[in-house]
TrEMBL record:
One of its GO terms (molecular function) is carnitine O-palmitoyltransferase activity. The active site is at residue 514. It catalyses: 4,8-dimethylnonanoyl-CoA + (R)-carnitine = O-4,8-dimethylnonanoyl-(R)-carnitine + CoA. It comes from Trichinella nativa. The keyword Ubl conjugation does not apply. This is Carnitine O-palmitoyltransferase 2, mitochondrial. The gene is Cpt2. GO terms for biological process: fatty acid beta-oxidation. One of its GO terms (cellular component) is mitochondrion. Residues 145-784 form the Choline/carnitine acyltransferase domain. PANTHER family: CARNITINE O-ACYLTRANSFERASE (PTHR22589), CARNITINE O-PALMITOYLTRANSFERASE 2, MITOCHONDRIAL (PTHR22589:SF16). PROSITE patterns: ACYLTRANSF_C_2.
Length: 796
C-alpha cells in the first residue's frame, strides 16, 4: 500500500458514499434539518459545506478504525504509523473546523430564521399556485376535435330544425339536405377532412371561428362582450352587504316594490347574524373601492406569474374528484410525459381541458382593422391600465426582474390614482370602443397620426388588463347588471381582453372581449382570484397606505392629444351609445322553490329543466317555438371552442303544449318532462364530445365561401337562415363564486338569457330590446313556468 494512499482515497471518494451511518444522520441532521423547503440559497450552500465536512470527518473516523483493526496483522508498521498519525491529526483539525462552522451556523441561524419566513412569504406571494404538474403538461396529449360523419350531421340538422317548421317547410328542408349530402356537401366534407389531416396541431373549428369573430363589424359592447360579477369577498365586503344584496333580489321580484321601500325595510332588520343591517356601512366609498381593487390586482398578478412560469394548476375536470383529485394523481402525472399522463388521467376519469386560450387572457387587445380585426399580445409589458373618470393611468406592477411589487406599493399607487380629483374627462376616448369596427378603425388611425398618442395606445394595448374604478354604488340588480354589461362607455375600453370593473361599494366583476376565448379561462381566473383573496386578503378594508412610498415610480398618466374631428366623433359616440344602452332592458329572477339538489332528487337534469322552463315561458308569451341556442364547451379537445346545443326539441314542444293545454294530467306530464330531460342530456353529451352539427356545417360553409364558388342551396335557404336566427340565446353559469352573469341578445328581436343553478336556488338574468320584447314580462312568465313544473313534480 503506498504511503498515505488509503486515507487520501477515503477523502477523495467521500462524495461517492451511498449509505450513511446513524451517527452520520445525527450529526448532519443538526445542520440539514428542515432544509428541503428552505428558499435562502446562500444558507443552503453553507449547510451543504458543513455536511461535506461531516462526510470527510466520518470518512477519516471510519478509516482510522480500519487501520487499527488491520494493524495487528499488517507487517508494514511504518505505513500504519504514518496513516494513523495523519488521520489522527486530520481528525483533530476537522473536529475543530467543523465545530467552528457549526458555531457559525448556529450564530447565523437566528438571523437566517428571521429572514426565512419573510423570504418564503415573498416566494409564496409571487405565485398564486406552484403546481407539481406544469400548466401545459397535458396540452400535447389532448385529443383532436373530431369531424362528425356527414350523414349524422345532416340527420341532426333535420332534428334541430323540426320543432319550429311546419310539415311543408320540413319536407322542403329534407330535400335540400338530401341534395347537399350527396353532392356539394360530400365534396366540402372531403376537403375539410384533408385540411384536418394536414393541420394536426389544431382543431378544424379554431381558425374559422377566430376569423368569424374578427370579421364581425358591429360594436363589441352588448353584441359580443359578456360579463360576470363576483360574489362579495369574505374579507373585502361586510356580511351585511351580501345579505342586503341577496335580499334585495328577492324583495324586488314584485315590480311594484322600489329601492326606497327596501331601504326602509332593511334598516329595521334585526337578528343575531345581521345587526343593524343597512346598505351603507362605516367605510367610505374610497376605502371599500381601494381595498377590493388592490386585492384583485395582487391576486390577478399572482395568477399571471403562475401562468407565465408554467406552475398554474392544469385545468382538469375530475368526474370522481375523491378518487382522482389526489396527491397520488398529481405525483403520477407529473412524472410521466404529457401524452402518457393524459392517458392515465383519462383512465382515472379525470379529463384535462384545453388551455390554449389562457395565452390571450393577459396583455391582449383586439385591434380594429378594416374588414378584419387583429389580436395583439405584448407579453413584455409589466403594467396594468387603470381607468378612472375616463382618464388612463399605467401602473407598473412588475419590476425589471419580473417580480411583483409589494401589496403596500400597489395599495399606495391605486390610492394615488383615486386622489386625482380631476372631473370626468370632457372627451373620454373609451367611448370610441363603443362604435362599429370600421368607424373605430378610421378614428384609431387618426389618433395614431398625432404625436404622443401612439405610445399611449400601445401602452393600453399591451397592458395586462384594464382596471375600471367606477363611482357607482347600487344594490339594484338592473343597474348593477347594466353597469357591468355596458356602463356609460366613459370609463370602459371594450377592446381589451379583460376589464376588471370595481364599483365604489366594492362590488367587482369582469367584462371580457369574446373573440379570443369562450369564458373557460375567465371563469377559472375569477374562481382562483376569489379564493385567493378570501384566504389571504393582502389589504384590509380601511387599512392606511404607506405614505413613504413614491407612487410616481409606478404610476404614469397617459395623455392623448385630440383634433376637433375626433372630439366631435367622441361626442356623437357618447350620445349614440347612451340611446343604445337605454333601449336595452335587463331583469333578474331568483327562484328558491327549486334548486339543484331538489331536481337531482327527482332524477332530472337541472340544466334540462331550466331550458324547458325557458321554452314554456316563451311559448306562453308568444305562442310559437323558435330556434334556441345553448353554448356547450368543447375544451376537452385541443383548441376546442364551443358547440351549439339546440334545447328546442320535439320532446320539449310536446311537454309545453301539454302543460299549457286546457287539461292537465300530472302523471302524463311527468313522463313528458322526463323525456325532455333525457333528450336534452343526450344533446349536451353529443355536443361536448364534438358530435353536434352546427360547427361542422359552419366549417363547410366557410370552405365554400373561400373557394369563391356559389354557395350550396342549403346555406342560402331561408330555413338555414331561420335556424341560425337565435331568438333565445342562453348560457349556463356554474360557479360558486359568481353572483351575476349575462350578455346581450344576439338578434334584435331576441332574448339573452344567462342562468345559474345552485344548491340554494335557480337564477336568471334576461336582456332584450324594449321595442321588440319585454324582459320583465318574460321573467314573470318564467317564474310561472317554474311554478308549473314544480306542481307537476309535486303531484306525480
Amino acid at each position: 500500500m503506498p504511503r498515505g494512499s488509503g486515507f487520501d482515497n477515503s477523502i477523495k471518494n467521500y462524495e461517492n458514499e451511498k449509505t450513511m451511518q446513524p451517527e452520520n444522520n445525527r450529526l448532519s441532521g443538526q445542520i440539514y434539518k428542515n432544509d428541503k423547503k428552505a428558499n435562502n440559497w446562500s444558507y443552503v450552500k453553507l449547510k451543504k459545506n458543513a455536511i461535506n465536512l461531516t462526510y470527510i470527518l466520518l470518512s477519516a473516523h471510519y478509516y482510522l478504525h480500519s487501520v487499527i483493526a488491520v494493524a495487528a496483522v499488517c507487517s508494514k508498521k511504518a505505513d500504519i504509523d504514518y496513516d494513523i498519525e495523519v488521520a489522527d491529526s486530520f481528525l483533530t483539525k476537522m473536529k475543530a473546523k467543523l465545530g467552528d462552522r457549526l458555531e457559525f451556523s448556529q450564530r447565523s441561524s437566528e438571523k437566517i430564521n428571521n429572514n426565512r419566513d419573510q423570504e418564503a412569504h415573498d416566494l409564496a406571494y409571487q405565485f398564486l399556485e406552484r403546481s407539481k404538474i406544469p400548466t401545459m403538461h397535458f396540452q400535447d396529449g389532448l385529443p383532436r376535435l373530431p369531424i362528425p360523419k356527414l350523414k349524422y350531421t345532416c340527420q341532426n340538422y333535420l332534428n334541430g330544425i323540426r320543432p319550429f317548421l311546419n310539415d311543408e317547410q320540413f319536407d322542403a328542408a329534407k330535400k335540400l339536405v338530401d341534395d347537399f349530402r350527396h353532392s356539394s356537401g360530400e365534396r366540402l366534407n372531403r376537403e375539410l377532412i384533408l385540411w384536418y389531416r394536414r393541420n394536426k396541431h389544431t382543431s378544424y373549428i379554431a381558425e374559422p371561428w377566430f376569423d368569424m369573430y374578427f370579421r364581425y363589424r358591429a360594436a363589441l359592447p352588448i353584441n359580443q362582450n359578456p360579463f360576470l360579477v363576483w360574489k362579495p369577498y369574505n374579507e373585502s365586503f361586510n356580511n351585511d352587504q351580501v345579505f342586503v344584496y341577496c335580499s334585495f333580489l328577492n324583495f324586488c321580484r314584485d315590480a311594484n316594490r322600489t329601492v326606497e321601500q327596501f331601504v326602509k325595510q332593511s334598516i329595521c332588520l334585526k337578528n343575531s347574524t345581521f345587526q343593524n343591517v343597512t346598505i351603507f356601512n362605516n367605510l367610505n366609498a374610497i376605502d371599500k373601492l381601494l381595498s377590493v381593487a388592490t386585492n384583485i390586482v395582487i391576486s390577478a398578478c399572482r395568477f399571471k406569474r403562475s401562468l407565465d412560469y408554467n406552475c398554474l394548476q392544469p385545468e382538469v375536470y375530475h368526474f370522481y374528484p375523491n378518487k382522482s383529485n389526489t396527491p397520488f394523481f398529481r405525483n403520477i402525472c407529473s412524472r410521466l410525459p404529457g401524452k402518457l399522463a393524459w392517458l392515465i388521467a383519462f383512465l382515472m376519469k379525470a379529463f384535462p381541458l384545453d388551455m390554449s386560450q389562457y395565452s390571450f387572457l393577459f396583455n391582449t387587445t383586439r385591434i380594429p382593422v378594416m374588414i378584419k380585426d387583429q389580436l395583439n399580445t405584448n407579453r413584455s409589458s409589466k403594467c396594468i391600465i387603470v381607468l378612472r373618470r375616463g382618464y388612463f393611468y399605467s401602473l407598473t406592477v412588475f419590476r425589471k426582474d419580473g417580480s411583483l411589487i409589494s401589496p403596500a406599493e400597489i395599495h399606495a399607487s391605486l390610492e394615488y390614482i383615486l386622489k386625482d380629483n380631476r372631473p370626468v374627462a370632457e372627451n373620454p376616448i373609451g367611448l370610441l370602443t363603443t362604435v362599429g369596427r370600421e368607424q373605430w378603425s378610421l378614428l384609431r388611425s387618426q389618433l395614431l397620426m398625432i404625436d404622443g398618442n401612439e405610445r399611449s395606445l400601445l401602452t393600453i394595448d399591451g397592458g395586462l388588463f384594464v382596471l375600471n374604478l367606477d363611482e357607482l354604488q347600487s344594490v339594484d340588480p338592473e343597474t348593477v347588471g347594466k353597469s357591468f354589461l355596458h356602463g356609460d362607455g366613459i370609463n370602459r375600453w371594450f377592446d381589451k381582453s379583460m376589464q376588471i370593473i370595481v364599483h365604489a361599494d366594492g362590488l367587482a366583476g369582469v367584462n371580457f372581449e369574446h373573440s379570443w376565448g369562450d369564458g373557460v379561462a375567465v371563469l377559472r381566473f375569477m374562481e382562483d382570484v376569489y379564493r385567493d383573496i378570501s384566504l389571504n386578503a393582502w389589504i384590509k378594508p380601511g387599512q392606511p397606505t404607506d405614505a413613504s412610498i413614491d407612487c410616481s415610480e409606478f404610476v404614469e398618466k397617459l395623455e392623448f392629444k385630440l383634433t376637433k374631428p375626433i372630439e366631435e366623433a367622441i361626442k356623437v359616440a357618447g350620445e349614440t351609445y347612451r340611446e343604445w344602452c337605454d333601449s336595452l332592458m335587463l331583469r333578474t329572477l331568483q327562484y328558491q322553490a327549486m334548486n339543484r339538489k331538489y331536481l337531482k332528487e327527482k332524477n332530472l337534469s337541472p340544466d334540462a329543466i331550466m331550458q324547458t322552463a325557458i321554452q314554456v315561458a316563451f311559448y306562453r308569451l308568444h305562442s310559437k317555438f323558435v330556434p334556441t341556442y345553448e353554448s356547450c364547451s368543447t375544451a376537452a379537445f385541443k383548441h376546442g371552442r364551443t358547440e351549439a346545443v339546440r334545447p328546442a326539441t320535439m320532446a320539449s314542444n310536446e311537454f309545453v303544449q301539454a302543460l299549457l293545454g286546457s287539461e292537465r294530467n300530472f302523471a302524463q306530464l311527468r313522463i313528458l318532462l322526463e323525456a325532455c330531460s333525457k333528450q336534452h342530456s343526450l344533446l349536451v353529451k353529443q355536443a361536448a364530445m364534438g358530435k353536434g352539427f352546427d360547427r361542422h356545417l359552419f366549417a363547410m360553409k366557410v370552405l365554400a365561401e373561400r373557394r369563391g364558388d356559389r354557395l350550396p342551396d342549403l346555406f342560402i335557404d331561408d330555413t338555414y337562415r331561420t335556424a341560425n336566427h337565435f331568438t333565445l340565446s342562453t348560457s349556463s353559469l356554474f360557479s360558486d363564486v359568481i353572483l351575476l352573469g349575462g350578455f346581450g341578445p344576439v338578434v334584435h328581436d331576441g332574448y339573452g338569457i344567462g342562468y345559474s343553478i345552485t344548491d340554494e336556488q335557480l337564477g336568471f338574468l334576461v336582456t332584450t330590446y324594449r321595442l321588440k320584447r319585454n324582459a320583465q314580462q318574460f321573467c314573470t312568465s318564467l317564474e310561472q313556468s317554474l311554478n308549473d313544473i314544480r306542481m307537476v313534480l309535486e303531484n306525480s
